[in-house]
Amino acid sequence: MTGNEPEVVEVAAHETHPLRLAVLRRDTPTKEVVFAEDSWPGTVHLAVRIGDELVATSSWVPRDHDATPGVHAVQLRGMATANHLQGTGLGGLLVEEGCGRMAASGFGLVWARARDAALGFYERHGFVVEGDGFIDGPTQLPHHLVVRRLATS
To answer: What is the distance between the alpha carbons of residues 95 and 76, in angstroms, rounded to a whole number?
Structure first.
């Protein structure tokens, strides 16, 4: 590895905060970037690192999905790619690596509250839009639930 190649790494919750602020809270009424679930047992924070810089982050929270009772599920939260690198495949790398890790850990489903502006991204990565849209409280932006079934080993 030359140091310029993207690498998916596990990080501490606080390391996700700068990208959450820059990407997910830009132009929203709230600037809060700490999620209560950040410190829950089993929560995993993944990031894409290029050299010394974190350029994409995500958090994976073990949490049931109401529409699929009995399925071991994980919620994808805080998915953010640096603004200048969006559309370069780094978010896809992160989501695919995360889904692979979650499947290997026995999760059968990933779900997220996805911004409508990002629905195409999620659909390209095997997620299906579920139910009616809604306005997210903290961001005041339109969202839909998205789900992806995982093949567990």
So the answer is: 9
Which residue stretches of the chain are H helix? 13-19, 90-104, 119-124
Edge-to-edge strands, sheet with 53-62: 7-11, 44-50, 53-62, 73-81, 109-115, 142-149, 128-135
Q: How far apart are the first and last CA of the chain?
A: 29
Helix, strand and coil content of the chain, in percent to the nearest 5, comes to: 30, 35, 35
Q: How far is CA 99 from CA 1, 79, 86, 94, in A?
A: 23, 13, 19, 9
Beta strand 53-62 pairing with 109-115: unpaired
Q: How many other CB atoms sit within 10 Å of the CB of residue 106?
A: 11
Task: Per-residue pLDDT tens, the chain, 153 aa: give them.
Answer: 456 899 999 999 999 989 888 887 777 666 777 788 999 999 999 999 999 999 999 999 999 998 888 889 999 999 999 988 988 999 999 999 999 999 999 999 999 999 898 899 999 999 999 988 888 777 777 889 999 999 865
Dihedral, CA of residue 15, residue 20, residue 22 and residue 23, to nearest 10: 140
